[in-house]
Amino acid sequence: MGQKPVPVRFRSRVQNQSEKQSESEVSNSDFSSFSFFFSLLNYRNVRFSKLEVYKKAKVFHLDCKSFIVKAKPDSYVKDQLGRASFSIALNIAEGTGKFSKADRKNYFTTARGSVFECVAVFDILFPIRNWALFYSLSLQQYHWYE
Q1: Which of 104, 94, 88 lies closest to 56, judged by CA?
Q2: Degrees, nearest 5: CA angle 34-46-39
Q3: pLDDT at 43
Q4: H/E stretch holding 60
Q5: What is d(CA 65, CA 138) in angstroms, rounded to the nearest whole number?
Q6: 89 Cβ partners below 8 Å, 6+ apart?
Q7: Which pLDDT belongs to residue 4?
């Protein structure tokens, strides 16, 4: 039948003072390099943050999260809609950072596919076109569903 699970054993080890000190130095240096990276990035100078489509994708994701809180759909719908709406903005941002036109197109195409995935979720949730709730969420401003 099935194999027996192998027990996991942890060895506890006492660290001496120099090991503790070197670990704290590593973690501090990792953090400082991380913050240095973000200071170089300077969010306001990133190209994708200025794109109108990226701004709309962010608002759309927040509206989808608002819908999830208000409508309380099943967990699988909540997960799918949340991931798909988040994927739109992330793919736009990642595609903007690519150098070749083909790579950018691929990410933008994936973002567009995520838009259609969100539209399909709403189409399945509102099969009789109960647009009252849909419009109450301000989703009509996107014109992505037409």
Answers
A1: 88
A2: 30
A3: 57
A4: helix 52-71
A5: 12
A6: 54, 57, 58, 60, 61, 111
A7: 59
8 A C-beta contact, residue 85 and residue 64: yes
One-letter amino acid identity for 100? S
3-state secondary structure of 28: helix
**Low-confidence residues of the chain: pLDDT under 70:** 1-45, 128-146
H or E element at residue 19: helix 17-41
Q: What pLDDT, on a 0 to 100 scale, did the predictor assign at position 60? A: 93
pLDDT of residue 141: 54
Return the pLDDT at 31: 55
CA 59 to chain centre: 13
Here the tokens at position 35 are 């913050």
Q: What sign does the dihedral 51-108-86-46 (CA atoms) show?
A: negative
Q: Where are the alpha helices (DSSP H) in 97-138?
A: 101-125, 131-136
Instruction: Report the candidate in 138, 94, 146, 93 with the shortest Cα–Cα distance to residue 115.
Output: 146
